[in-house]
Amino acid sequence: MKILVTGGAGYIGSHTVVLLIEAGYEVIVFDNFYNASKESIRRVEKIINQSIEVIEGDLRNRDDLKSVFEKHTISSVIHFAGLKAVGESVEKPLKYYDNNVNGSAVLCEVMAEYDCKSIIFSSSATVYGDPHTTPILEDFPLFATNPYGRSKLMVEEILRDVYVSDNTWKIILLRYFNPVGAHESGTIGEDPNGIPNNLMPFIAQTAVGKREYLSVFGDDYDTKDGTGVRDYIHVVDLAKGHVNALDRIENFKEVMTVNLGTGKGYSVLEMIRAFEKASNKKVAYKIAQRRAGDIATCFADPSYAKEVLDWKAEKSIDQMCEDGWRWQSQNPNGYKGIV
Ligand code: NAD
Ligand code: UDP
């Protein structure tokens, strides 16, 4: 079965491509390389010891997408492609709505034209806004606090409407919690542009000596130690969730919405300590102001994923930090500088 992976050169996409091929799927990657390096594909090819067909193109360009479907009979699409920087989305909302919402709508149109009606979409725990309680279940109220989050909510709604209009579609919405870590080989991983926004890449870059110290955004939250609590999930566990979803997608008779998280919450200070242990490096930090828009606590109830996808996160926080450190220490500049 041929699977189209949009955004397959990116962080989560590249790890998922490895697992899909290991599971016996044939994969076509579609990416515009806006936030990815071709080196990630070369590294994936090395891990799986075979070449991958990559089609360079943009979601918003119908002809780019059509060229994929003209050439290949695609049975399902795993749709990772999108922009993900929350801060940038506040400054450039139209860029986010165009890329993430319009791009997804064009993708669905072209899919329908070629009678491919099976899609797994990368949504996010951000669609729960500031939840009234934790752990978070899939039927909690939805609320977005920024254009990035709203773009995810909008695509979820679009896909639900597509299903209402034609219930032969197979649609799974996967809501990710906080993906971290890297493939155990240390050859592929997260490679943020410029100064990282997310905690784990910032900690890793501090440990490797690229940043002087980490700013801990607030120590006065109502949490175990006052710092923010999140559900960090190993990217390989997350990738496995997609393989399980794909294995089962034909069985589902409605739009499935599934949390992919571990069910455990770790604070910023706990993450610093775990990373120090894994890397044997000191991570200098200073307590700073709360970051606007942050919430105190966010972690999943992952029981529905177990029930419908037979999926459960397996990897511990120590493995997340060890694998993240292997990637960071072997590739201090990510994929940059490699042609
Ligand atoms: P990423 O930026 O590493 O990967 C996204 C990929 O999509 C990149 O390779 C980029 O070049 C490509 N892309 C973007 N716009 C495109 C377009 N118009 N046409 C073709 N390709 C395009 O991000 P990631 O962390 O791998 O995230 C994958 C998906 O998961 C995204 O949709 C993201 O919003 C979602 N998600 C990520 C996180 C996270 O913390 N990483 C959490 C929740 C949800
Ligand atoms: N955080 C931090 N310093 C940083 C980046 C993040 O203290 O440089 C905190 C942030 O306030 C939150 C947690 O780390 O409590 C996870 O933040 P991240 O941006 O990685 O994920 P998100 O907030 O989107 O869940």
TrEMBL record:
EC number: 5.1.3.2
Reaction(s) this enzyme catalyzes, per UniProt: UDP-alpha-D-glucose = UDP-alpha-D-galactose
UniProt keyword annotations, A-Z: Carbohydrate metabolism, Isomerase, NAD
Pathway of action: Carbohydrate metabolism; galactose metabolism
Domain annotation NAD(P)-binding: ranges: 4-323
GO molecular function terms noted in the UniProt entry: UDP-glucose 4-epimerase activity
Cofactor(s) required for function per UniProt: NAD(+)
GO CC terms, sorted: cytosol
InterPro entries in alphabetical order: NAD(P)-bd_dom (IPR016040), NAD(P)-bd_dom_sf (IPR036291), UDP_G4E (IPR005886)
GO biological process: galactose metabolic process
Family: Belongs to the NAD(P)-dependent epimerase/dehydratase family.
PANTHER family (alphabetical): UDP-GLUCOSE 4-EPIMERASE
Protein name as catalogued: UDP-glucose 4-epimerase
UniProt source species: uncultured Sulfurovum sp
